C-alpha cells in the first residue's frame, strides 16, 4: 500500500490511479451515484472516497490559486 500524501488514507497505486482518472476525466464533484460507483471500483468506502475527493479538490484549488474551500466560483 502506498501512503497518500493528502491525508491518512492508505491507498494502493491502483486505487490512486482510478481516483485520479475519475477526478481528471469524469468529475471533480461526483454526485452520490458516481461516488458509489467510484468507491466500488476502488474497493473503498463511500466515506473514504468522498474524503479523498474533498482533499483532492482542495489541493487542485490551491494549485489554481483559488481558496481551498468551494465558494461562489464554480470549478
UniProtKB/TrEMBL annotation:
Query: Which CDD domains does the record cross-reference, listed alphabetically?
Result: homeodomain
Which terms are listed as keywords in the entry?
Developmental protein, DNA-binding, Homeobox, Nucleus, Repressor, Transcription, Transcription regulation
Subcellular location as annotated = Nucleus
Q: What is its main location?
A: nucleus
The keyword Transcription is assigned to this record:
yes
| Entry-linked Pfam families | Homeodomain
Residues annotated as DNA-binding region?
13-64
- Which residue numbers delimit the Homeobox domain? 11-63
Name of the molecule in the record = Homeodomain-only protein
Originating organism: Ilyodon furcidens (goldbreast splitfin)
